[in-house]
Design goal:
This protein is an alpha+beta fold. The protein folds into four domains: 37 residues, no CATH class; 92 residues, Beta Complex (RNA Polymerase Alpha Subunit, Chain A, domain 2), CATH 2.170.120; 91 residues, YbbR-like domain (RNA Polymerase Alpha Subunit, Chain A, domain 2, Beta Complex), CATH 2.170.120; 88 residues, RNA Polymerase Alpha Subunit, Chain A, domain 2, CATH 2.170.120.30. Helix content is 16%, strand content 43%. It contains five helices and 25 strands. Strands 10, 18, 20, 21, 23 and 24 form a six-stranded mixed sheet that branches. Strands 2, 8, 12, 13 and 16 form a five-stranded mixed sheet that branches. The longest helix is centred in the N-terminal third of the chain and has 26 residues.
Length: 322
């Protein structure tokens, strides 16, 4: 009679016996594990969940709070297994009355309460000395609005006539004290305008920076920005040369030089500029002795001129023998 073999080359009888052996080993292992877990003399280290409890209307966490504390415990095998794998573990509540007064909590202060919370499991020791946290008191402050210089551009040859003004003049911001300190008393306003060439008044939305949205709230939704700008016109003048303190033995390399002044003038003062006489002052006492040159100074120099340029700005000196 021919006996068929399985695809693995093992006869059905041997395969049946192997299954019996495997089942016996599994049953014995299961029995041993169940029996072992019923014992009460096990010790292990676990991360036990904790929860910080404080008045969240008065305080706010500005960093991730510790979610567990590392402890060494002993007790029943089943109980330790549940705590190790965090099965149905209720977090231990850590109550903080004044959380902003310090930045850490000694774990030794938790030991008594945690021991009672873990019963019948026994707390042997706290692995770490402390738990660090960042919780600040919530404050409300008044900040001065300032225009973000990167949020706008002016047209060519235009300048701000004065500092921008805002309506309202103050911005109310609430949040953790350490976050509010970042602003240093001012709040940047985004105008989002380019090539401004005239006076303007614009209402813009107020928003806190995206990376601080979870911490801050702002009372005012919008603010009006008022700008007064002035235009500058390009111009040039030929200057009258005036020499001061020149000895008889010193002359200019070019005795009658043509000196030009190029400038931008505040458009509001163009008429006043027409009647003004400018001089190119050459003061021998301010010469450069090393290279025998003298720099050109302009008089007068009114405040309504900008980007003043002189050509040439230096002249060469010639020294004659007595």
């Amino acid at each position: 009679m021919e006996i068929k073999k399985s695809p693995t080359g093992i006869s059905p009888k041997k395969l049946s016996n192997l299954k019996v052996v495997v089942l016996c080993v599994a049953a014995a292992t299961t029995f041993w594990i169940l029996n072992a877990l019923n014992k009460d003399d096990y010790t292990t280290i676990v991360d036990f969940p904790v929860e910080f409890v404080f008045d969240q209307e008065e305080y706010m966490a500005v960093g991730k709070l510790p979610s567990s504390v590392e402890i060494e415990i002993s007790g029943n095998g089943w109980d330790l297994l549940r705590k190790y794998f965090k099965i149905n573990n209720t977090p231990y509540p850590i109550e903080l009355d004044n959380p902003s007064s310090k930045a850490f909590l000694l774990t030794s202060d938790l030991k008594r309460g945690l021991s009672e919370f873990l019963a019948p499991t026994q707390l042997i020791s706290m692995v770490n000395d402390s738990l660090e946290y960042e919780i600040d008191q919530i404050q409300t402050v008044q900040l001065t609005p300032t225009l973000d210089s990167l949020s706008y551009t002016l047209g060519k040859n235009y300048r701000l006539a004065d500092d921008p003004t805002f309506e309202p003049k103050r911005i109310t911001l609430s949040g953790p004290s350490s976050i509010l300190e970042i602003f240093e008393g001012t709040f940047p306003v985004q105008l989002n305008e380019s090539r401004i060439s005239g006076a303007m008044s614009k209402e813009v939305s107020l928003e806190v920076p995206r990376d601080l949205e979870d911490y801050l709230s702002i009372t005012e939704e919008t603010i009006v920005v008022n700008l007064d700008v002035i235009g500058f016109m390009e111009g040039n003048k030929r200057l009258k040369v005036k020499k001061i303190n020149f000895p008889r033995t010193v002359t200019l390399e070019e005795e009658d030089p043509t000196i030009m002044m190029y400038y931008l003038v505040d458009a509001r003062f163009t008429e006043e500029l027409k009647d003004m006489e400018f001089e190119a002052i050459l003061d021998y006492g301010k010469r450069n002795k090393q290279d025998s040159t003298i720099s050109v100074q302009i008089r007068p120099m009114p405040e309504y001129l900008d980007q003043v340029r002189i050509e040439p700005s230096l002249l060469n000196l010639i020294y004659e023998n007595d």
